[in-house]
Design brief:
By secondary structure, this protein is of the alpha+beta class. It has two domains: 58 residues; 142 residues, Nucleoside Triphosphate Pyrophosphohydrolase, CATH 3.90.79. The chain has five helices and nine strands, in the order αααβββββαβββαβ. The strands form two sheets. The protein has a five-stranded mixed sheet with strand order 5-1-7-6-9, with helices on one face. Strands 2, 3, 4 and 8 form a four-stranded antiparallel sheet that branches.
Amino acid sequence: MSDQWINWAQRLQALAQTGLTFAVNDFDRDRYGQIAAIAAEMMAAGSMGEVDGLQKLFDQQQGYATPKLDVRGVIIHNSKMLLVREKLDEGRWTLPGGWADVGESPSLAAEREIEEEAGYTARATKLLALYDRNKHGHPPYIFHAYKIFFRCELVNEIQHLVANVETEETGWFAEDELDALQLSVYRVTLKQLKRFFEYERHPDWPTEFD
């Protein structure tokens, strides 16, 4: 499925969701429901899932459609970057992070994810990048999402184990070790990780955004 087709399908789903939220009669609700069905068929044709499953997922979405927020914490300490190994993606590596929760700021979300997934207490110090997920080489995803990356510093170097269902291991990697890793590219790309090492060498660089 091409990037343009993904973009079209995501926009159709968002229009249908917003339309169903504000529709005032059955005629409009039926038409917006058909648009949602077309979006599901397009994504199914692109091997992003089965039509029925996609439609059920769309039906669960309510309110005005907006991009989802994926927040990641970037810690580089002693010239090595902190990564976690995912349980749900064949043991691939990524930056600690996930969807932002309602009621918390993005920086606190990054700090929380580091605590939960890696067992370190950290403090967000700079917004490094805010990317449109569709524009940075990630595999297709059903919903439109923004990716937010914060530079974080360790509050202390003591790791405490935290039981969680998402990650199974933590590791510290030098820049020249990244190429050999199997990365969870749904979550982070090699280009992004190397970019953040560049930020470490150039702390005065401004935030990068689309």
